[in-house]
Fold this protein.
Amino acid sequence: MSGHSKFANIKHKKEKNDAAKGKMFTIIGKEIAVAVKEGGADPDNNSKLRDVIAKAKANNMPNDTIERGIKKAAGNMEAVNYETVRYEGYGPNGTAIIVDALTDNRNRTAANVKACFTKGDGNVGTQGCVSFMFDTKGQIIIAKEECDLDADELMMMALDAGAEDIIEEDDSFEVITAPNDFSAVREALEKEGIKMAEAEVTMIPQNYVELTDEESIKKINVILDRLDEDEDVQKVYHNWDE
């Protein structure tokens, strides 16, 4: 795990243009709608909605935008007909890629995702073909520049809250939890005033694949960039060592 700093990537993504920010707000808006439909509009009684709100705040979504999204979803429950679909496939040199989407049209999304892979000489595989190479974990990224605690203090706080591990990078701390413990750990750290750059349940590669030739790097970037631009794609996981 060490050496794969997530914070640098998060910071880079958040500093990208307004179109990228708009895509992230669209992603979070869909997640709010699904969370409200599944568990109601009151965050106090809906842990999934609390987690999405935390993600929204970590991505600098304004509070009024979050509240409007919740009210819109609560007032229009029947209109929320998104379903979660997952695609698994391969990029260059056997790199593993997982795509999570929220869609109201499975056929459209499947065709679009397949086209993204094809453009980078990749291919979509069968369900489960690469997911065994990843572990599902809660992941909380904390920037050192925004944290007053040292590694030992933060580790004790996180472990006491139920975290599995804390990894120190040059610029950040990475708190790892079991998926079922994620909400409790995130809320415990939040109550202590810990600011999080990112907090979500994610897929963490067991091993990373290094690409050394420019053509392979170009191809995987084509796949990832096209997936990033697709409105239905919520999250992309891969084991390329960037």
Summary: The beta strands are 83-90, 96-103, 123-124, 134-143, 165-168, 172-177, 198-205, 233-238. The CA atoms of residues 29 and 96 lie 28 Å apart. Helices lie at 6-14, 18-39, 47-58, 63-75, 106-119, 151-161, 182-191, 214-229. The mean pLDDT is 89.
